[in-house]
Amino acid sequence: MELATAYPSWSSVNDLQLVTRVVAGEAAAERELYETYVDRIYRLSFRIAGDDELARDFTQATFIRAFEKIGSFRGESSLSTWLHSIGMSVALNGLRKTKRLRKREAPIEEGLTVGSTRREAEPDLKEKMARAIESLSEKYRVVFLMHDVEGFTHEEISGVLKIPVGTSKSHLFQARSKLRVALADFAPEWVS
Amino acid sequence: MTEDKFESFLKKAAPSYNSPPERAPREEMWRAIQAARQAGPRVVYGGGANSVATSGSRFGSKVWLSAAAAAVLVATGVGIGRWTASPGTESTAASTVARTAAPDQVALEGPIKGDASGSERTVTTERGDSRAPGGRAFDRSTSVASGPSLRLDVASGGITASGNGVSGSASTAGATSPSAYQVAAVNHLTQAEALLTSFRTRSAADQRVDAQLASWARELLSNTRLLLDSPVAVDPQRRPLLQDLELLLVQIVQLSPGGTPQDREIIEHTLKQDQVLTRLRTAIPAGQRGS
């Protein structure tokens, strides 16, 4: 227990046992690993992608890759951190590719909407919040979503994204600062 | 104080952003994972946690450049493979193979090792006549799709492939048959994945995009057929993938701008049922993505 407290990112005995069983080819262990972590991986993928199909693709690719690479897992970080690290890598790379595709489609969509009436209504908080988060650069957005939305600690973020804890805190600070400016219309909500 | 309130405000309001469904589709994803793992041994989607996607390619107008490059690479791989696959291949640097429109006739031009004079000569072999002068053996029993033609010009260190309006050149120095095929295949599969991802992410109203995708699919279709005819397709996992991909590409090619939603649904259905996208991603080795 002391070790776990001193090195909270290290794998627990249960993690290592589970990994050992997976490496040994035990099908039930694979399913157990999947069931244990799939919800969090999927949630985070969805937060990053904002699309069910993409979130599924990313989650699937994460586990396929994890099962393939599990032999290289040495327990230097927790299994959760290791899996999320793969998941974030998969999601961010996949999303960059998808964004490139959408960039190409955007001009066509804009062309098709010529002549249509724009929405006059002022976007509500939800819409404005979404736009503000979308406008953040990737590194700020990811840290913000992981910390403030999904509840990861800075230590966990540090392990998953392989950045120093201080950098994670700095990114979160920057993200919040930018959001504060973007959401200035709603200042009365937090200024007493 | 204000900072704390803003933090609380964010934590209360931000979860509405990209809010995931309450339940993850566990069973569906598990089935897809199992299918993909059975279909192929390699899965890689992206590099390390902080890997940065290469920024060379851009989807937009440059997509055609990428498609052309992929077409050239595929044709190059197939060409080099055919050139070097035969036993006893000891051609010197200055030889040229030209595939003509007739699939069962191959013209070989250029000096062949053992020809001390080094003078160029032309040999034409008919299908079944598999041995050319100088001990060089040819196996031309397999046919290549009639669309693209392939021309190797090793003398100049260049390879030119033409077909469907695509042409280009690449160095052949040090190229070997298996690696050339592999590079060509991986590049092709990467392109196919990009196309299918694009197909899935477009909205139903994107009829102009459909037309562009159809045109792009046509390019990939000819390359898919070339690959199906090459040693890459010997792989028991890659062959069915290429065949499924071929079917999908045919469907996309036939997708006209005025097509019905049912046409698109059929393609979507094929995509999901055969897990083509997942299998493609599985078949693309690490480091090949994001380009």
Describe this protein's structure:
The complex is a heterodimer of chains A (192) and B (291). Chain A starts with a helix and ends in a 10-residue tail after the last helix. The longest helix of chain A is centred in the middle third of the chain and has 34 residues, at 79-112. In chain A, 73% of the residues lie in helices and 0% in strands. Chain A has 9 helices and no strands. Chain A has 192 residues and is mainly α. Chain B has a domain at 88-173. Chain B has 8 helices and 6 strands; from the N terminus they run αααββββββααααα. Chain B has helices at residues 2-13, 26-39, 62-85, 177-201, 207-228, 238-253, 261-274, 276-283; strands at 96-99, 105-109, 122-126, 149-153, 158-163, 166-168. At the A-B interface, helix 3, helix 4, helix 5, helix 6 and helix 7 of A face helix 1, helix 2, helix 4 and helix 8 of B.
Short description:
The complex is a heterodimer of chains A (192) and B (291). Chain A has 192 residues and is mainly alpha-helical.
Q: What's the pLDDT, averaged over the residues of chain A?
A: 84
Question: How many β-strand stretches of chain A?
Answer: 0
* Helix-strand topology string of chain A: HHHHHHHHH
Distance between the termini of chain A: 44 Å
| Oligomeric state as shown | heterodimer
Strand content of chain B: 5-15%
Looking at the overall shape, the CATH architecture of the largest domain in chain A is: Orthogonal Bundle
Number of contiguous helices of chain A: 9
**What's the order of the H and E elements of chain B?**
HHHEEEEEEHHHHH
Q: Indicate the percent of residues in helices of chain B.
A: 40-55%
Spatial sequence of strands, sheet with the most strands of chain B:
3-2-1-4-5-6
Which parts of chain B are unreliable, with pLDDT below 50 for 5 consecutive residues or more?
42-61, 88-176
Class computed from helices, strands and strand pairing of chain A: mainly alpha
Structural class of chain B: alpha+beta
Report the CATH C-level class of the largest domain in chain A.
Answer: Mainly Alpha
Radius of gyration of chain A: 20 Å
- Cα shape of chain B: globular
Task: Kindly estimate the percentage of residues of chain A that lie in beta strands according to DSSP.
Answer: under 5%
How far is the N terminus from the C terminus of chain B? 47 Å
What is the fold-level CATH name, i.e. the topology of the largest domain in chain A? Answer: Rna Polymerase Sigma Factor, Chain: A
